[in-house]
């Protein structure tokens, strides 16, 4: 079993913000697989189980707000007795140009509070990541205001391409190990 987690914040006001690009990618994946996510109280998340080519997958959007995302992921990992290598987390990254996607198997939090929460809750840095670049804020704009703002029109095409890349990478991960994902989709 594998879990694909998109990080973001719940609520309408955050729906199309930069910080919610992980949620957007999970919605794209659910749509491409003909699935709908439903609230799961015990996991404090929107959640669905999917069978793809004989592989059981879970799509997860924690509803704990970004800074507590790890609590939801830990609940799922504990319930299903998952290894951290069976988790893929999709999230926004300020250090990558808008629309760039980078995959890796481990690492630090890089200042991202959602990833910090996952590392704390899982007790490891060893989980797969899909980092979607959102670029740095313009000079004079606070990071928190920037990540909680919506993409502008010039960024939308690049972000849509990045989300499509994540969907293709997840399809690859169904059949192969994460090394193949990194080799094909980075």
From TrEMBL:
EC number annotated for this UniProt entry: 3.1.1.29
Site entry: Discriminates between blocked and unblocked aminoacyl-tRNA: 9
Superkingdom of source: Bacteria
Reaction it catalyzes: an N-acyl-L-alpha-aminoacyl-tRNA + H2O = an N-acyl-L-amino acid + a tRNA + H(+)
Keyword tRNA-binding applies: yes
InterPro entries: Pept_tRNA_hydro (IPR001328), Pept_tRNA_hydro_CS (IPR018171), Pept_tRNA_hydro_sf (IPR036416)
GO molecular function, one term: peptidyl-tRNA hydrolase activity
Annotated catalytic residues: 19 (proton acceptor)
Sorted UniProt keywords: Cytoplasm, Hydrolase, RNA-binding, tRNA-binding
Enzyme class: hydrolase
Localization (cell): Cytoplasm
Binding residue positions for tRNA: 14, 65, 67, 113
Residue numbers marked as site, Stabilizes the basic form of H active site to accept a proton: 92
Family: Belongs to the PTH family.
Biological role stated in the UniProt entry: Hydrolyzes ribosome-free peptidyl-tRNAs (with 1 or more amino acids incorporated), which drop off the ribosome during protein synthesis, or as a result of ribosome stalling. Catalyzes the release of premature peptidyl moieties from peptidyl-tRNA molecules trapped in stalled 50S ribosomal subunits, and thus maintains levels of free tRNAs and 50S ribosomes.
Subunit structure and binding partners: Monomer.
The protein's name in its UniProt record: Peptidyl-tRNA hydrolase
């Amino acid at each position: 079993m594998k879990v694909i987690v998109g990080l973001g914040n719940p609520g309408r006001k955050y729906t199309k913000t930069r910080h919610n690009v992980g949620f957007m990618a999970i919605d794209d994946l659910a749509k491409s697989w003909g699935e709908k996510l439903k609230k799961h109280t015990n996991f404090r998340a929107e959640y669905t189980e999917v069978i793809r080519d004989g592989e059981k997958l879970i799509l997860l959007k924690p509803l704990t707000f970004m800074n507590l995302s790890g609590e939801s992921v830990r609940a799922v990992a504990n319930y299903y007795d998952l290894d951290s290598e069976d988790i893929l987390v999709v999230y926004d990254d300020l250090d990558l140009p808008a629309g760039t996607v980078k995959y890796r198997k481990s690492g630090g939090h890089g200042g991202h509070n959602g990833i910090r929460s996952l590392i704390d809750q899982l007790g490891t840095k060893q989980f797969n990541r899909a980092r979607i670049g959102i670029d740095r804020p313009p000079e004079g704009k606070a990071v928190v205001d920037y990540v909680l703002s919506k993409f502008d029109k010039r960024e939308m095409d690049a972000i849509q391409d990045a989300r499509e890349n994540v969907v293709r990478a997840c399809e690859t991960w169904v059949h192969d190990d994460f090394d193949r994902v990194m080799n094909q989709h980075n």
